[in-house]
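User: Structure with adenosine-5'-triphosphate, tokens only please.
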Amino acid sequence: MIALWTRLGRPFRGRIALAFLLATAGGAMAALLLGVSGWFLTASAIAGAAGSAYAFNHLYPSATVRGTAMGRILARYGEQLVGHDATLRLSARLRRHLFEAEARARAGLARPASDSLAVFLDDVHLAEGALLRLWLPAASAAAASLIALVFAGLAGWVPLAVVAGGLALALATGRFGIAEQRRIDARLQTLNDRYRREAASLVENRVELEALGRFGDAAAALGSLSAETAGQALAAGRRTRLAGAFIAMLGGLSATLAVMLGSGATVPLLAGTALSVLAAHQSLAIALGALTAYPATELALLRLNTRIAAPPAIAEPADPAPAPGTILPVRTRQLQIGFPGAAPLCEVPDLDLAAGSVTEITGPSGCGKTTLLETLARLRPPPGGALDYAGIEAADLRAAAIRQHTGFAPQMPDTMRGTLADALRLAQPDADDARLLEACRTALFMPVVTRSPEGLYQSLEEGGSNLSGGELRRLAIARAILRGPELVLLDEPFAGLDAPMRETLAANLGAWARGHAAAIVLATHIPAAGLWPGLTYRQVPLTLSSKRHTSG
Ligand SMILES: Nc1ncnc2c1ncn2[C@@H]1O[C@H](COP(=O)(O)OP(=O)(O)OP(=O)(O)O)[C@@H](O)[C@H]1O
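Assistant:
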């Protein structure tokens, strides 16, 4: 927790310290309230029985009881208020840092697996609750225990030893509970991981499973896995409740022993000691119940720390060159492309991408066409060779400065839920409708826009699932050219198009590139030199590297 908090820049120190202070005060007041009440009621009763009720000054003790009762309520209320406030602020900062770190560390455009996303969200949830659920109750229990020890100390050495022993045994039970939970978690985690993976895959592959008539079986299998996981979690919960009951019972036992063995102390003091001990054990039992979530939280914090500290996919220069006004020409020399920890996919023929040019990257499936486009968009570092933009080495420029001049339409585009206009404006938030329509016309996306009276404001489902594959690709092309980038990277833009549509789309994009002095690079299985009049045309074939299969 401290490591993660330090990584976040130790924010909201004052608020967090105040939440701890209030939790400590709340715990102390709860034990004090019971202790003083026990002492006061017993002393009053004894005084009354002895017929000296009027001689007994009850004003100070009763004021203390009322004061601690009020103080306890205020401290608990304040702890909740300040603790929640600190947690919400911490969460906002944690999420921003995590999402930024994720975005920096992720190379290329591939989607993260859904199960890794589920683990990530669970981890964030656990980390966010750590302060409220674990640390504040622990602080409160520690303060209550201290007050019980003070009462016992006033009652004499023997009660002090008994109470200290009871508290030590309760703590040992807590430690044992955590160790046991760690063991259970390891077992539960295997089940949970399997459940998450299978649930994510069921949702992701629902359409295929339905088409193959296998959805019902898969859902039933997931249902029994879910029941098994829930059963294990319930069994773990039973053990926690048992440990809590044991701690409460220990409280009763050490309170009784303290009273029985504290012969040197006054009866009211012994009564106060007994009640404060019960309060301390109750706080400890609550804290222990929460602390059984400690192993899972510890693991979540470790994973989140690792994510935040993950090195960026593209290392940013320590002393970056000023953002260039233009990135063309883009030049590569003996550029290699590939993935970290694996042999380069291939060496790319040298490229000189100038304004008004079109370069078709061709080659067999899997040779690295997409990987090359991602490398040119600075989404992925090249394992070797030279890559520069307008004469500046890529490594000396911020990736964002390059991407600002780049438009990328991936082979399998993704969109968020919203409207067509929302999806387009991700590229250029201030673009007006006329500009959106112009991009849609160039990308042959108008048939989709005009088929609904809502036009650009018709709804778009998550992942573009209410568009066909070809329509989604053309939406991505419209988005890629919307802000007038200098370098346009198109992955299989013609896939699924018939010859006349392919010609029209190429003619539109060619005219657009001439008008905007842009360089187009496209990965394609269907090269067509004749489609690009008025542009400098080059076809660049990639070949499968023989090294890939023998090294890496
Ligand atoms: N994250 C990854 N880690 C390791 N290898 C990968 C990863 N992603 C893709 N590959 C492999 O890299 C190779 C190149 O993939 P790429 O998508 O660039 O090929 P492509 O030429 O665009 O293929 P296609 O024409 O089928 O779209 C493939 O063999 C692929 O299996």
